[in-house]
Amino acid sequence: MASSLLDSLMQQLESRGAIDQIAGKLGVEPAKANSAVSAGIPAILAGLAKNAKDPAGASALANALDKDHDGSVLDDDAYFDAYEEKQGEKILGHVFGNQAPAVESQVSALGGLDASQGTELLKMLAPLIMGFLGKEKSSGGLDVSALSQILGGGGSGGLQLPGGLAEILGGLGGSSSASASSATSGKASSGGLGAILGKLFGKK
After folding, report:
1. Residue 142 — φ and ψ, nearest 5°?
2. Spatial distance between the Cα atoms of 88 and 143, rounded to a whole number of angstroms
3. Which of 43, 63, 181, 183 would you call most buried, defined as having the most Cβ atoms within 10 angstroms of its Cβ?
4. Integer CA distances (angstroms), 35 to 23, 31, 32, 178, 182, in order
């Protein structure tokens, strides 16, 4: 279940050649873009989970998904040609607050990008992830109020973040040994991401 949901998310991006388009926008090889995306996606999810820990934050997220993120962005073939940087920047500001520069720096390092490339990547990813969450919420597959508990529950079911991001985002990434292992490989743990997506989008 978990792996199929992760595959579904990645297939939506891959079917439109998202990794290649991201690589082209950043001026890097697709493999490097893929590594950075593998760090950026769980970082944004963890930031959302941290905000949803507060009932007011969960309510604000639910309202934002209902109002502005219906998932249509995932079907926009011209998204990468005309994406709005200000929209991505606004989302990242709400998600990370004053931690945004540190998160952007760490994602850049994990993906082998420079600082400006890492920032641009996260601005591109943020609306796509919000659209994905909004689509899942509208279909009944996402319980926003449980977001923080699901992602930050710890153990094998918790979100496993690449090295450094767990510390920046308040320890939502599980054990330090898992973070260190991911840091060594320079990539996000696909098993950890798949597990949290399985719990996040699994219908109850």
Report:
1. -135, 125
2. 23
3. 43
4. 11, 6, 5, 17, 11
